[in-house]
Amino acid sequence: MNVHNIVTPSKGTTSYLSFRDEIITIYFGDIRSKVDINIINCRKTHLWNCIACDSLSIKKDSNIIKCNYNKGYDKLFAHIENHHKDYMNILNDRRQSLPSLFNTSSNKAKYIYNHLDNLTSNNLSFNDCSKPKHRLYSSLNPISRNTLIKYHSALSKEVANVIKYSLPPFIGLIIDGWLGANRIFYCGIYAQYVKNGNKQRPLLAICPLVYERDHGAASYYETLKITLEWYGLTVDSMLYLISDNFSTMRSLARDYLHCPFIGCYSHKLNLAVKRWLCNPVRLRLIEKVRLICVKLRTMLNTAHLRELMLDDFVQPLIDQETRWSSIFNMLQRFVRLRDTIILMQNRELDLLMPNEAEYRDILSLNIDMTEMNQFTIKLQQSDITISVARKFFDHLIEKYGEDFNHHLSSEADLILDNNFDNGLIKVINNEENLLTVTEEM
Question: Does the reported pTM lie above 0.90?
Answer without folding.
Answer: no
